[in-house]
Amino acid sequence: MAVSNIPFKLRFPLIVGAGLLISTGTTADASGSDGRWRCFPDSSKNWVCEPLGASPGQAVPNTPIGATASPATSSAAQTASAQSPQLRLNLDWVPVAQLNEEQREGLPASCGGRYIEPERVGKDFKGDINQAPIHAESDTSDYKAGEKATFTGNVIVRQGYREVRSDKARLFEQTEMGEFEGNVIMREPNLLVVSDKTRLQTQSGRMDAEGVNFAMHDAHSRGQAQQFVRREDGIIEMTDASYTTCAPNDNSWVLTGSEVSISDETGFGSATHAVLRVKDVPVFYTPYIHFPIDDRRQSGFLYPELGYSSESGTDIIAPYYLNLAPNYDATITPRLQTKRGVSLESEFRYLTESSEGEIGGSFLPSDNLKDENRNYDENRWLVNLEHEHQITSRWDATLDFANASDKDYLQDFGTSLEVESTDNLNQQFETRYRGGDDDLYWSLLANAQAFKNMRQDKDDPYEKLPQIEFQGGWNANQQLSFSWLADATYFTRDDDWKYIGKVPEANRNSFDQRYDVERSIYEEGTDEITNANGTRVYLETGSSYRWQWPFAYIEPTVKAKTLHYKLSNLDRAAFDDPNTNPGGRKYDTSPSTSTPMFSLDSGLYFDRASSYFGSSFTHTLEPRLFYLYVPEQDDQEQNPLFDTGEYNFSYDSLWREDRFSGRDRLADANQVSLGITTRLLNDSGFETLRFAIGQTYYFEDREVLVDPYYGKDQSEDGADSNLSQGREWTLDEAEASSSPIASELVWNFSRASSIRQEWVYNTDQSWNQDYLFAYRYNPDPARMLDVAYRYEKRPDRTVKDDDGNAIAGQFDDGSISQSDISAIWPIYGNWSFLGRWNHDLTNNESLEVMAGTEYDSCCYKVRFLFRQSLSGSTDDIENANTENAFVLQFVLKGLGGFGTNTRFLEGIKGYEEYDKSSGVK
Question: What's domain 2-298's superfamily in CATH?
Answer without folding.
Answer: Lipopolysaccharide (LPS) transport protein A like domain (2.60.450.10)
